[in-house]
TrEMBL record:
<comment type="similarity">
    <text>Belongs to the thymidylate kinase family.</text>
</comment>
<protein>
    <recommendedName>
        <fullName>Thymidylate kinase</fullName>
        <ecNumber>2.7.4.9</ecNumber>
    </recommendedName>
</protein>
<dbReference type="GO" id="GO:0004798">
    <property type="term" value="F:dTMP kinase activity"/>
</dbReference>
<dbReference type="InterPro" id="IPR039430">
    <property type="entry name" value="Thymidylate_kin-like_dom"/>
</dbReference>
<dbReference type="InterPro" id="IPR027417">
    <property type="entry name" value="P-loop_NTPase"/>
</dbReference>
<keyword id="KW-0067">ATP-binding</keyword>
<feature type="domain" description="Thymidylate kinase-like">
    <location>
        <begin position="7"/>
        <end position="143"/>
    </location>
</feature>
<dbReference type="GO" id="GO:0005737">
    <property type="term" value="C:cytoplasm"/>
</dbReference>
<keyword id="KW-0545">Nucleotide biosynthesis</keyword>
<dbReference type="GO" id="GO:0005524">
    <property type="term" value="F:ATP binding"/>
</dbReference>
<keyword id="KW-0418">Kinase</keyword>
<dbReference type="InterPro" id="IPR018094">
    <property type="entry name" value="Thymidylate_kinase"/>
</dbReference>
<dbReference type="GO" id="GO:0006233">
    <property type="term" value="P:dTDP biosynthetic process"/>
</dbReference>
<dbReference type="GO" id="GO:0006227">
    <property type="term" value="P:dUDP biosynthetic process"/>
</dbReference>
<keyword id="KW-0808">Transferase</keyword>
<keyword id="KW-0547">Nucleotide-binding</keyword>
<dbReference type="GO" id="GO:0006235">
    <property type="term" value="P:dTTP biosynthetic process"/>
</dbReference>
Length: 194
């Protein structure tokens, strides 16, 4: 049975790296599609490019619209065709980033109410100082990356996890400190039934 797995965590925690290694590993068990939010579609690229101008509610709505299109046009068709789907970011990212952008959890959730819960949502945690050093090496940071901090994102991810857990989402936390991306992917794989 194909599975929809989401990788979450603060900027610089290792989402993109982990999602790539995990997808590579899952390919040994069946077809696997790797994807990301905001999407690499023209609409998703526009949202990313306009992130400075589309703040607060307009950004929350644009990101949610991109997410619903992602579900309709990419995630659900791939799952129906028998592929596993691994997404770098999904609803929890909105519960963190849109909150940093001034919205309440209730408003953010109202825009995401009709999304499909993943089979497994993985929250990566890493030492804030390690994350800060990784972000310092990046040449460009988005408006929200500059507004938030590793500590704030970790705290808001904690709230997001409690909120979604109360709504039946199946979730795990991986403490990535000292673990290679392969070791992180191993731990995630242990929670999947294949
Ligand atoms: N488990 C890990 N151990 C050591 N370095 C890592 C690990 N995961 C990611 N990295 C490194 O940390 C940096 C940020 O990783 P990235 O996957 O881009 O994070 P995110 O997608 O969460 O912003 C990259 O340079 C990446 O190589
Ligand atoms: C997925 C998502 C992205 N965004 C916005 C803020 C981010 O700075 C921007 C880009 O997402 P991000 O994945 O962090 O950047 P990139 O793909 O360029 O590495 O999109 C949200 O505000 N909420 C979300 O739920």
């Amino acid at each position: 049975m194909p599975r929809f797995v989401v990788v979450e965590g603060p900027n610089g925690a290792g989402k993109t790296t982990t999602a790539r290694v995990l997808a590579e590993r899952l390919r040994a068990t069946g077809r696997t599609h790797e994807t990301t939010e905001t999407t690499r579609t023209p609409f998703g690229n526009m949202v990313r490019a306009q992130e400075k101008w589309l703040a607060g509610r307009p950004l929350a709505l644009a990101v949610a619209a991109d997410r619903y299109a992602h579900l309709d046009n990419e995630i659900q068709p791939r799952l129906r065709a028998g592929s596993h789907v691994v997404s770098d970011r999904y609803v929890p990212s909105s519960l963190v980033l849109q909150r940093i952008d001034g919205l309440t959890v209730e408003e953010i959730w109202s825009y995401n109410l009709h999304t499909t819960p993943p089979d497994l949502t993985v929250y990566l945690e890493e030492d804030p100082e390690t994350i800060r050093q990784r972000l310092a090496a990046r040449t460009t940071l988005s408006r929200l990356e500059k507004t938030g901090s590793p500590e704030l994102e970790l705290e808001l991810y904690h709230d997001a996890r409690a909120f979604l857990g109360a709504r039946g989402w199946r979730q795990i936390v991986i403490d990535c400190r000292g673990l290679s991306p392969e070791a992180v992917a191993d731990r995630i794989h242990q929670h999947l039934p294949f």
